[in-house]
Input
Amino acid sequence: MGTFLTQLGDSAGNIGAAILVTVEATVLGAILALVLAFILGLLARSRFLVVRGIARTIIEFFRGTSLYVQLFWLYFALPVLGFQISSALLCAVIAFGLNFGAYGAEVVRGAINAVPKAQWEGAVALNMTGFQRMRLVILPQAWIGMIPPFNNLLIQLLKSTPLLSLITVADLTFEGQQLRAATGQTALSYLFLLVVYFILAYIFTLLMNALESVAKARLGRGGGLRGLFRLREADPTGRSAGAGAGGGA
Amino acid sequence: MNTSIWDWTVVEDVIPLLLKGFAVTLLATVVGSVIAILLGLLLAMARRAPTRLVRVPVRAFVEFVRSTPLLVQLFTVYVLLPSLSPFVIGASVLGIHYATYMSEVYRAGIDGVPKGQWEAATALSMPRGRTWQAVILPQAVRNVLPALGNYIISMFKDTPFLAVITVHEMVFQAQEYGSDHFRYLEVFTLAAAIFLIASYPTSLLVRRLEKRLGH
Output
């Protein structure tokens, strides 16, 4: 235990840097996923069958094949075709973005469809253009419904980042294994690693709760700060985690 | 040495290996699902236990397991229990990880059973065990079947993680063949295709089940 703590103190710098790598991959992956989720989610509601078809195919493809396989494909197979992604970290960010973007697209689509029909009709009655209707009326309401499932996806993304250690990136898991090799304390090293991931997940959840409070306050539905520290709710339908084939709602 | 980008002889070569690995993938999914379905139910029921001494630790366990990475959990158990076979560890950890997700599914199902059902069972002075078994669970479980199906598909897509503790599932076979022959394009494209072929129709089935149950 003593040697473990000494070693932990000695490698604090490395571990700090590794946490930053993990957080960086999570945040960049999430940003890419968010952008793709909105693009694909909106295209999947298009009037045109061809556009819808293309969006659906992309969504189902990335939901139907495993993230692990997608990452390894980008890292090992893509260079064979002549495209070398410049860094392993970027490779992972792209894989995370594509995979979680596809899951997120279903969240976006479902949340937009869940906005009551009267809101759409009201916007039409006010003579708003399609763009205004989306930006001023529909999205601010749909956004609130998207945040809890986005939070679940964000934590899943965070939990997928140990994949980085398999493609030579010195992320948190990699440093945890270094710590284990240096101290020989297997149980303590891995327990430490799990606890750090748990704390990171909780910090991300707090931030998402805050985001939800802000979004609600903007629509005058504020519940104040009460909900800020609650834990993430699970998705009781499993839709955000599992199956493809387009949700209902 | 064939230098074309896509080599069909590699495909012929590797498909039997991938299918052999796929059998392990399926077995891990089935074993993991059985563990997750049963343990998930136990965890959900434990969270309704009459005493906090049970409820609080169970809640903490569920939150901790579902907020930490499967990959690290696999490594942890793998190095701590070296006497067990990698497959047993892999399928069990996968099952326990998803049990925590499924416990939340069951919990939603149990919460969805009207309070009057509990009260009626009390009024009939049914013992607690019989109330669960004959009144609550039949109603709760039926409604959550599609959600359980979704998580099983998700679990199926997480089985490649088992490769990191040397379980010879499909992606392990793909990686090994790829590094031995330095042919990555074919093996990972095929692995992706097999995943898609297996998971997409299953997800359609779950969707139909959802519709039939009126979700």
User: Anything to note?
Assistant: Chain B touches chain A through 62 residues (CB under 8 Å). Chain B has a mean pLDDT of 92.
